[in-house]
Amino acid sequence: MSGTVGIKVEEHFHSAEQQRETARLGMWTFLLTELLLFSGLFITALVIRVQHPTSVTAVALHLKFWIGATNTAVLILSSFSMSVAIELSRLGRQRLMLRFMLLTAALGAVFMMLKGYEYYRDYVEHMMPFLPYRSYELAADPASRLFTNLYFITTGLHAIHLTIGIGIMLVMAWLASRTGFLQQHQNRIEITGLYWHFIDLVWMVVFPTLYLLNR
Amino acid sequence: MDAKLKRRLRTPFLTMLALLVLLGANVLLGSLFTTGHAWIAEVLIATVMVATVIVVAMEAHKEPPVIRLFSGVGFFWVAILFALTMVDYTTR
Is A47 on the interface with B (CB under 8 A)? Predict the structure, then answer.
């Protein structure tokens, strides 16, 4: 059933609209600092590609291209699910919104499971050069260590962000299960959505940078 | 599903379809062309995907001017970072 939607105005804001805009500006600012963090890793990957193209190709052939592609599709579906939850929140459809938020978190969990399997395969195939007790498959090519380590740092950092995203989604879903949540805190769903879409956006750069280009 | 909800879900649904089609194109390029200049098309497709998420999914186009300016400047700054670094490494 539809209900009223709104924002509880805090005392230091003039209006709900001002509070909403401030929250969104704050989230965009945070996301841009995150973008700069990931950009450092992306530019490093491109420099390694330019300096050691054959080593990068050797590593890229070991990466699980189809798992990476499947995970991209999973995140696109999760973004759609988040967008649906946001639209439902604007219409005041709290119970249905809750289900789509849980679906979004579940798709995030699917991504993490596939990522975990990918890491397991990397371990089995001796593609973890940072493990001192285990031999490295491409030991004869020292430059390949740079790209392999960068792959783990980048995907690991993304996985940490996604785990945080799943946590936020579950907490928001728990809060939104209370009666009257959308009457006071609808903008929280929008802010959560911005973060989730950003995680999706980062992976859309990770996939071509690490898995796809001249593999 | 009521008409109002259906109308509102049209844009997210079309965005998802567009992103999946673009991903499909990139996967196809990655599978069929492992060398040569396919990377140019792959980078362009990834750029369109990122722009679609920012503008449509994150609704940057609906934001007030100050937020649009802020997000635009942020991505422009990253573009400068990439351009200057790659100009250096590719012209040595």
Answer: yes
Same domain, B8 and B49: yes
Residues A201-210 pLDDT 10s: 999 999 999 9
Same domain? B7 vs B52: yes
Average pLDDT, rounded, for chain A: 93
Q: What is the pTM of this model?
A: 0.93
From A77, A194, A56, A189, select the one nearest B60 (Cα to Cα): A194
Q: Using 50, 70 and 90 to split pLDDT, how confident is the model at A171?
A: very high
**Tally of domains in chain A:** 1
The answer to whether A122 and A128 have CB atoms below 8 angstroms apart is yes
Q: Is A50 on the interface with B (CB under 8 A)?
A: yes
Q: Cα distance from B80 to chain A (closest Cα, Å)? A: 11
A215: closest chain B residue by CA: B34
Residues B91 and B49 in one domain: no
> Shortest CA distance to A43 belongs to which of B87, B53, B47?
B87
